[in-house]
Amino acid sequence: MSKIHIVFGPQGAGKSTYSKKLAIDANAVHLSIDAWMWAMYGADLPKTMNLKWIMERVERCEKQIWATAKQIGRCGGDVILDLGFTKLAKRKQFKALATEQNMQIQVHYVTAPHATRKARVLNRNIEKGSTFSFEVTPGMFDFMEGELHSPTEEELANAIIVDTGTKS
């Protein structure tokens, strides 16, 4: 039975780094919303932040990512979904989709202290390393902090919890 790994947590916690390593360790396909958004829409990003424009495209990417994940699962492969999953409803939606396909589900909650995460995000803007997709301004970081729905006790009961706060 194929497995869907749902990786979520606050920005800058290390979800993408963790997901990439997990994909290697689990011999799974890593599907990242940042990579899809940048490949599909990076050249078309509006000059000023337009949340409606971005969210419409995120929804399109998520639908296609799920179609791809479903196909991989039907072939017996495992998938790492690195989609941010800031909203509880979105996490529930993808768990339901996986359940409909008779896929096993493993949730991974990646976290780190606020100051560590903010420093990572701002440093990523400068370094533009392997997990850089687009610049996240301090204002964008602060906005997104309020968008994360904290994990429920039920979600964490069977989750793999990863605290990356002790790593740089």
What does this protein look like?
- It contains seven helices and five strands; from the N terminus they run βαβααβαβαααβ.
- The protein has 168 residues and is an alpha/beta fold.
- The chain has one domain (3-163): 3-Layer(aba) Sandwich (Rossmann fold).
- It has a five-stranded parallel β-sheet with strand order 2-3-1-4-5, with helices on both faces.
- The longest helix has 24 residues, at 51-74.
- The chain is globular.
**Strand line-up across the major sheet:** 2-3-1-4-5
CATH fold descriptor: Rossmann fold
* SSE sequence, one letter per element: EHEHHEHEHHHE
CATH class category: Alpha Beta
How would you state the average pLDDT, rounded?
90
Précis, in short:
This protein is of the alpha/beta class and 168 residues long.
Ordered list of secondary-structure elements with their pairings:
Blueprint (H helix, E strand, L loop, with lengths): L2 E6 L6 H11 L3 E4 H9 L9 H24 L4 E4 L5 H13 L3 E8 L2 H14 L10 H8 L7 H5 L2 E4 L5
Parallel strand pairs: 1-3, 1-4, 2-3, 4-5
Helix pairs in contact: 2-3
Task: Throw out a few tags for this protein.
7 helices, 5 strands, about 50% helix, Rossmann fold, about 170 residues, alpha/beta
